[in-house]
Amino acid sequence: MRSSFVSFTLNGEEKELLIAPGQRLVDVLREQCGAMGTRNGCGQGGCGACTVHVDAVPMLSCLVLAELAEGCDILTIEGAARDRTLHALQEAFVAEAATQCGFCTAGMIMAAKALLDRDPAPQREAVVEALSGNVCRCTGYEPIIAAVLAAAAMLARLPAAAA
Amino acid sequence: MSADITARIREDIFAAERAGVFRAVGRALPRIDARAHVSGSTRYYADRSFPGLLHVVMARSERHHALIGGIDLSAAEAVKGVVRILTHKDVPNNWYTILKLIGMGPDEEPVLAEDRVLYRGEPVAAVLAETADAAREAAGKVRIAYEDLPAVLDIEAAMLTDASAIKPHGSNLFIYDGRDHFHVHCGDTEAAFCEVEHILEHSYQSSPIEHAPVETTGAIAVPEPNGRYSIHSNTQAAFFTLDNAALILGVPFRHLRVIGGTVGGGFGGKVDVIVEPIAVLGAMRTGRPVKYAFSREEEMQVSSPRAAERIRIKDGVMADGRIIARDVRILVDAGAYSRHSPYGTIKAAAHMPGPYTVPNVTINAWCVYTNRTPSSAMRGFGVTIGDFAVEVQMDRIARLLGRDPFELRLQNAYRDGEMKPHRKKVEGAALVEVVQAAAERIGHSLPPEYRAMSSSRKG
Ligand code: FES
Ligand code: FES
Prior knowledge:
The structure holds 2 protein chains of 2 kinds. Chain A contains 5 helices and 5 strands, in the order E-E-H-E-E-E-H-H-H-H. By secondary structure, chain A is α+β, with helices and mostly antiparallel strands. Chain A folds into 2 domains: 4-80, Beta-grasp domain (Ubiquitin-like (UB roll), Roll); 88-157, [2Fe-2S]-binding domain (DNA polymerase, domain 1). In chain A, strands 2-1-5-3-4 form a 5-stranded mixed beta sheet, with helices on both faces. In chain A, helix 2 packs across helix 5 (141-157). Chain B is of the alpha+beta class. A 7-stranded mixed beta sheet of chain B has the order 3-7-1-14-11-12-13. A 5-stranded mixed beta sheet of chain B has the order 9-17-16-15-10. Chains A and B meet through helix 2 and helix 3 of A and helix 2 of B. Residues 99-105, 136-139 of chain A line the site of one FE2/S2 (inorganic) cluster.
């Protein structure tokens, strides 16, 4: 099997990369694209630290073959802020002390963002469900859930265009 | 949020110990690194790229206890991309013990196994390859010939006189200044037991606990043009790592530089010195940057957990609730090697009898070797399990006497100025105030004399 060219958009930027067969999306994002904010916590789908959006769907990038990203629109934590302004989720994680070591944080925020993108006013249960694949060993889940709910409230107060 | 926490700080307590007002205590200040965490820009050790980086995967013991008949590297060396395979012969000073730096010996752990393995997962041969995949494949092809020995997997079994000794000093116990256990006592426990109304004896047991940080243990060693080595690491103990690595590698301390401080979860699991010496050795032997990171499986299987403990507490209690004698036996499962367990065992002994003043106390604590994964530091190691045992014991005493468990604790709580069994004076005691505040918060009313108690005076 030979390497092949794969193109996708990463945080709005066109990419065309030579990908070896079997290469995982998490490694390509980190090593070839320099998007180090996506973390590799287990490499086996167990922790959620590597969560990114592939065509607006949250996915574990350690379980996605990079060659399958052909033509996809990929969003990572580096693309969550706009024009250097943090997303409401990012602000809320700071304000609610929802991050300690930070290793789970990018994955948490990407999983939560996928939820708020499709359900801007989620119930607590929906937040718990959306984060159920993401492990945090430091902070405890309560501040994280509180941060997601606070971000939803913040977004509700913003004019639609800014959200 | 900050207002809520401030409201909980009772400024009337310990007023004398405070100069002025609290500026940070009682307030929720944002972490200094929080914005970098949420934007993904925090750089952990693995977030740096080095051209020519080699990857280490360790070939490990598949046995709990065995002699090694031979190590065949030929199939592993034939894997495409393999650059070098390190065995114990490559390690300048293969025998070490991490607490040597605070004077607790002897050297008793090999960096890489020599003629025997003492636990399943013990490192035997380090494969360096161009890619992690090649290193993993080759590590799976290292052939180790074993001759099985009986495995000792239980702490009490390890202490039996006919147990097979797994350590070279001929015993399964760490030796403290010529004694096979650590001992603390005060008063005359035996005599006191003859005078008490009740004797209560219970045993408590815990399992090993894995820290499971979301970022696994790892380091990258980089040869520098000046002949020195930089170590990018997620260690929680930069100087322990630097000094132990230098001793193992036989280089002056100044030849190593540890760059760290950003840790993706540690909880004590990243204070042993495991990956750095191998990464630097690889960099020395190949002249290239070398990364050695645990897989998730290794993090679970071989990173050192909190020690399993077995604790027996025997209390002598008077009818009025005073505990006047406490005899404690503590067994700490060090696993196959010392790591931080001899120290954790001392902590466990010194911590007894908990935050209570008991005039007659005997404590015997054994640091026991077994063929299990070496245990080490984890959040309050040595005292956490002991606290569990002591507090369950306090509840049992309260139940036996028909006493309120809050009042029993307040009655026996140590006060400033009292002497602990290991001859340390109590300072900054706060148990009385904590119990009072806990009672208040759950709406449990205490009689006035208990509400008036204070840590700073007896009564
Ligand atoms: S790294 Fe992908 S789920 Fe843990
Ligand atoms: S903040 Fe450390 S794992 Fe979540």
